[in-house]
């Protein structure tokens, strides 16, 4: 799922698109501020059996498009692989199993489905006994496609990416998107996963939202640099505040946002403050900043460097 920060204009995408001989993208039918053109799901393989990556948000239009595409391809599903627990990627599992209860559905940490954005996923509806675990390094194969699953937490604790050997491409889930930047639960863990992903492939990135990323590794480098720049801005802003005046008990994330994000509409300041807070928590783990009295006011630890 994308960040709400400013992004390039969103280019409309067709509901179903063949992206390569082995990859067909089927949109989830759930466009929006955070989901961009909608959640990308992918039909992978070239023969009578195919693999499905993610299941959208549970829109009826999605399951209809999937069924139609499989009929046109004269193929059926061997298995569905879920990249992570968020509702816009798991919501269609129930439709899949209602359609064909024999479909094998794989997900890292199968019982970890806490729900998302007011749309809880019912374990009873899905039937977790039908969800099979994914191990780091596990492979899934059909004619024309071999996928290797790699655990890359950060966006969520259960997040997996999938390397497509035949194209040296990577299904990046929500760790890397086709537009803008991604949100994450833990910045340090997320950056570690980006570094791991960077070395997995040399080709395209097939993201969880947005268009295909033509140079996947370059996009990951761009993501890492962007996060590093934001971190440097937070440190420099704290340093400037402390050098110019008595910082008292420190500065809140929102006070930092109002300096770092000058010129950005105030409607984006609240989500920006969430990102700044993640940076501050990472810096605290590294011993670079601290809070006053356990509150939400932050300051540099190494004041001698001012």
TrEMBL record:
Gene3D superfamilies: Ribonuclease Z/Hydroxyacylglutathione hydrolase-like, Winged helix-like DNA-binding domain superfamily/Winged helix DNA-binding domain. Residues 38-209 form the Metallo-beta-lactamase domain. It holds the Pfam family WHD_BLACT. InterPro entries: LACTB2-like_MBL-fold (IPR047921), LACTB2_WH (IPR041516), Metallo-B-lactamas (IPR001279), RibonucZ/Hydroxyglut_hydro (IPR036866), Sec-metab_biosynth-thioest (IPR050662), WH-like_DNA-bd_sf (IPR036388). Its cofactor is Zn(2+). One of its GO terms (molecular function) is metal ion binding. It comes from the Eukaryota. Keywords: Hydrolase, Metal-binding, Zinc. One of its GO terms (biological process) is secondary metabolite biosynthetic process. Belongs to the metallo-beta-lactamase superfamily. Glyoxalase II family. This is Beta-lactamase-like protein. It comes from Neurospora tetraspora.
């Amino acid at each position: 799922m994308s960040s709400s920060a400013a992004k390039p204009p969103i280019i409309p995408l067709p509901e179903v698109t063949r992206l390569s001989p082995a990859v067909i993208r089927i949109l989830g039918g759930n466009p929006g501020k955070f989901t961009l053109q909608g959640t990308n799901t992918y039909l992978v393989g070239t023969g009578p059996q195919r693999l499905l990556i993610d299941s959208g948000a549970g829109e009826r239009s999605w399951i209809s498009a999937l069924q139609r595409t499989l009929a046109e391809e004269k193929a059926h599903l061997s298995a569905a692989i879920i990249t992570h627990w968020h509702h816009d990627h798991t919501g269609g599992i129930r439709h899949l199993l209602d359609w064909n209860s024999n479909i094998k559905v794989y997900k890292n940490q199968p019982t970890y489905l806490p729900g998302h954005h007011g749309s809880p996923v019912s374990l009873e509806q899905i039937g977790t006994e039908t969800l099979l675990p994914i191990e780091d390094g596990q492979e899934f194969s059909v004619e024309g496609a071999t996928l290797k699953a790699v655990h890359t937490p950060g966006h969520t604790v259960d997040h997996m990416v999938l390397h497509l050997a035949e194209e040296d491409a990577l299904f990046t889930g929500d760790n890397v998107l086709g537009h803008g930047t991604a949100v994450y639960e833990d910045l340090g863990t997320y950056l570690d996963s980006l570094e791991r992903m960077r070395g997995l492939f040399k080709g395209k990135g097939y993201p969880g939202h947005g268009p295909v990323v033509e140079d996947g590794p370059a996009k990951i480098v761009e993501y890492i640099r962007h996060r590093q720049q934001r971190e440097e801005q937070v440190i420099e802003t704290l340093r400037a505040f402390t050098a110019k005046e008595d910082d008292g008990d420190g500065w809140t994330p929102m006070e930092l946002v109002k300096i770092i994000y000058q010129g950005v509409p105030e409607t984006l300041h609240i989500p920006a403050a969430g990102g700044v807070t993640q940076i501050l928590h990472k810096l605290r783990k590294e011993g670079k900043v601290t809070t006053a009295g356990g509150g939400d006011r932050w300051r540099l630890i190494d004041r001698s460097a001012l």
